[in-house]
Every structure is written in C-alpha cells, then in structure tokens.
C-alpha cells in the first residue's frame, strides 16, 4: 500500500529534489522482506550508506543479505558490474555450503524464490562515474555506460529478478537510461512524505503516529467508494448531461454582471470563476 513492488526487469527510480537515499534503501529492504535471496549492490556516490540502512532496517539480518561493491571511476564501476556473475556464483557456493553443514536448508517463502540465488540487483546513480570521468572522451563515456546498461539488462533476464537503478541527473546524457528501463517510478517530496507514482502504483495514503492514515488525493476516496459499490452490487457510474454542449449546460450571470459558462457543478463554477478568488 505504501511502497511499490519491484517487477522483473530494469526499474528506473527518479527522485525529485534530491538523491533519495532513504527512499531507494526502503525499496530494497521492502523487496528483501518479501523475497528470499541476497541483493547485489553496485554503489556510486555513497548511496549504500550503512548508517541509513541500519536506521531503517527492521532487522539486522536483512543487512547480511546485501553485498556491496563500489566503483570510484568509470572503469571501476563497469568492472564491478562485469564481476557480478562471479560474485553471485561465490555467494551461491557459500550459502549452499553453510546450509549443508547446518543439515537443513532455509525455508523459502514461496516456490519461485530461493535463499541462495539473487533476489535483486541495485545500481544507484548509474551515470555518476561516467559523466565525472575526465579521462574518457564523450564517445567512450557513452559507450561504456551503454555496455553497463546492457549487462544489467542481461542479468535481469538471466536471473529473472528486478534491477533497480537511479540516475544522478535527468538530461540528454541519461536519456538512454530511461529508454532501456522496463519500468519507471517517480518520487516527489510532499509535506506528508514521499509520494511514489508508477504505471501500476500511486501512493495515496500516509501513516501517522496513532496508526491511522491520511489520504493524499481524492482519487483514493473515489477508488474506495467504487470498490465498495461494486461489492454491494451497485455499478458505479458517472452521470452525463443528456444534451451536452461544449461550454457545459448553458450560461450564468455573476454578482458583478459578468456572463460566464455554467457547468453541472455550481461549486466548480464558483471555484473557477475569475475575479472571485478562484483560479
């Protein structure tokens, strides 16, 4: 209800007004809570901060399932991405060995997941090292970043898992990142908390201290009432005028003598009327 689920393939998360480290880490931890297996994190610009992870993680055992590699240059970042398969194989060998020595395997949450195979790959600020490397020409920089994206797409398909990425900036240099992404999430900061919007998800409510929830949009109440109407056998419909006109249902006259178009909603007429404090 509060966080979107990550689907298989590359998911691009764009956070408005900042790097969005807590939001990124929350999505990662939420996914690990629902799925078995480790997460492999290729970090840039300090997104894998252990302080924040430790503060928001509901269990310290989750942190043991996150394997982090860092690249401080474009070639180091690309090398870390290339080294993901050997790292995954080593992790599988170690986890299966430990499970064998214990005499039993870890219980799996469902038949489609395993505690040994990867559950998620994370690559935040995927463009940061490539745009900051002065030793590469513009052509080589774009080529190296394209190869990184191609490898991540291959891993997403090969392991059948989500790959979560972010970008440091939204500009022409990162248009290819948006193109290669299978899913796109956008997060904006509101006064009640971060609001995430995707193709099949939208944050509509926020929790408060007493356990209740604030609604953030009228769409929440519309969806709630439409679902309730369907449940009790009342088909939700929106009445329309029998003879609609382009300007609504006719005209009206304001207190100042101005002739305006009238709609079927007098409150809407008052709200949108010019010169009356409306917008």
From TrEMBL:
<feature type="compositionally biased region" description="Basic and acidic residues">
    <location>
        <begin position="101"/>
        <end position="114"/>
    </location>
</feature>
<protein>
    <recommendedName>
        <fullName>DNA recombination and repair protein Rad51-like C-terminal domain-containing protein</fullName>
    </recommendedName>
</protein>
<feature type="compositionally biased region" description="Low complexity">
    <location>
        <begin position="245"/>
        <end position="255"/>
    </location>
</feature>
<feature type="region of interest" description="Disordered">
    <location>
        <begin position="233"/>
        <end position="255"/>
    </location>
</feature>
<feature type="region of interest" description="Disordered">
    <location>
        <begin position="97"/>
        <end position="117"/>
    </location>
</feature>
<dbReference type="InterPro" id="IPR027417">
    <property type="entry name" value="P-loop_NTPase"/>
</dbReference>
């Amino acid at each position: 209800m509060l966080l979107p689920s990550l689907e298989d393939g590359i998911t691009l998360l764009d956070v408005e007004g900042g790097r969005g480290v807590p939001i990124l880490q929350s999505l990662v931890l939420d996914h690990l809570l629902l799925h078995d297996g480790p997460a492999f994190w290729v970090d840039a610009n300090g997104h894998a901060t252990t302080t924040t992870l430790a503060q928001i993680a509901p269990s310290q055992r989750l942190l043991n399932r996150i394997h982090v590699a860092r690249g401080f240059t474009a070639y180091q970042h690309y090398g870390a991405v290339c080294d993901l398969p050997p790292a995954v194989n080593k992790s599988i060998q170690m986890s299966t060995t430990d499970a064998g020595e214990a005499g039993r395997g870890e219980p799996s949450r469902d038949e489609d997941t395993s505690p040994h195979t990867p559950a998620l790959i994370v690559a935040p600020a995927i463009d940061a090292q490539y745009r900051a490397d002065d030793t590469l020409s513009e052509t080589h920089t774009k080529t190296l970043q394209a190869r990184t994206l191609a490898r991540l797409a291959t891993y997403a398909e090969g392991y059948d898992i989500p790959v979560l990425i972010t970008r440091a900036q939204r500009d022409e240099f990162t248009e290819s990142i948006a193109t290669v992404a299978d899913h796109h999430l956008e997060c904006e900061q509101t006064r009640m908390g971060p609001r995430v919007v995707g193709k099949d998800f939208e944050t509509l409510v926020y929790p408060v201290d007493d356990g209740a929830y604030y609604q953030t949009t009228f769409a929440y109440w519309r969806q709630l009432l439409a679902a309730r109407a369907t449940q009790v056998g009342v088909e939700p419909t929106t009445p329309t005028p029998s003879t609609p006109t382009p300007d609504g249902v006719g005209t009206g006259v304001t207190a100042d003598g101005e002739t305006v178009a009238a709609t079927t909603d007098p409150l809407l007429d008052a709200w949108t009327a010019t010169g009356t404090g409306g917008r």
